[in-house]
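Feature request, filed as a ticket because there's no other form

It would be nice if the structure record came with a short human-readable summary line next to the tokens. Right now we just get the raw output. Example of a typical job, pasted below so the devs can see what we mean:
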Amino acid sequence: MNVRDPLTGRIERPLDPVPPDRLAAVAAELRAMTPAWRDTDRGTPLSRFGAALAADDELLAALVADTGRVAESLLERQIVAGLIDRWVRQAPALLAPPADFPASLPGVVVGGDAVPYELVGAITPWNFPLLLGLIDAVPALAAGCAVVVKPSEVTPRFIEPLMRLVPDGLPLRVVEGDGATGAALVDLVDAVVFTGSVPTGRLVAQAAARAFVPAYLELGGKDPAIVLAGADLDRAASAILWGGTANAGQSCQSIERVYVARQVHDEFLALLVGKAAQVGLTCEGGPIGPIIAPEQPDVLAAHLADAVAKGAIVHTGGAIERHGGGHWCRPTVLSRVDHTMLVMTEETFGPLLPVMAVDGVDEAVALADDSVYGLSAAVFAATEEQARAVAARLHAGAVSVNDASLTALVHEGEKHSFRLSGLGGSRMGPASISRFLRRRAFLVNRSDAADPWWHATKG
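Raw output as currently delivered:
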């Protein structure tokens, strides 16, 4: 495989996967660091790491080179710095041992502590290389684990500048590699976190099962937005446009289908089309960056062709463009869509916004839930109460109310992925650190009885 420039399409260099023996040596090195790491003040080196990351322009330049985007890379770096700061502040209280309490047996007290996994492996995707490379690694480190991260082979440039920022004693390594590297990693760790596609997630889960280690999977999405009569249509159009086209739609929580009450459908569609038509590409001074992964243009083209062949109307965009050798797609609004079309049922991962009219809340909910995915969703209504009532009916792990794709910015809410969108404990919220801990109970007999009744045997 080769490292490709998403802006120009040029091959820059061959991928340089870490050899299996070196990967095993890295794992052994990290395991040797864990006793000291667990016994140290972990907040200080993590804070130093976060401060260095927030100020490092070489890391930012590498992220821009990896993805071809600037604004999102700046935001990504900012979010990761905030993520580290939040875990430094929250972890001590979350990791404090629980108070002893009396058991059901008289004289027996229950106590306990938490034991971090020694080594966690993270296999991460190309759409947000830094954020998704560290979103699980940081709480694992805060819990007392060592971590090795294998980012996507599509975006490896940020690895070297990131590793230069890791303080001495911080048991974090980020390695370059391909699918074979990720597969080898699963056999070397005590727990694995994976972010990516459903097919690859299945392979990771199977490998983890064979290795008898837990796997936490964050997979794909086909996020719906529902716009009800009475909603603020201008606000909804702006939010859905952002939710569907930020990072050129290359986000798992991107809005990929929109269901609008029939009585306001035409008005909403006109607003969305008008706003989308004003959004340009970064090569023209606009906000929409290039398509990062080399195979993704074919997916977008196939979804567009299928929709048009089945009667969809394209109002804006509608084509894969070449500029400077890279691939680009303008915000593309479609109408007259239905669930026979790929664009309404399969993950697109691009700035396509198909809009479908619905007759009432029940139909909107039924269509929103007509998916193998259940990552997140959005609901717009006249009141928060109305929107939350609809949100409570959706099979999705997080629902933005009168906004869209807030999970990209708000990480405090605990949530699970429904259906094929994931498996395992919540990646968000304070509880997410518990994924990297095993609970140990101490059952203490404080009874004064020399021989309590449960010791008695029939002889």
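Something like this underneath would help us a lot:
Residues 71-95 form the longest helix (25 residues).
The two ends are 72 Å apart (CA to CA).
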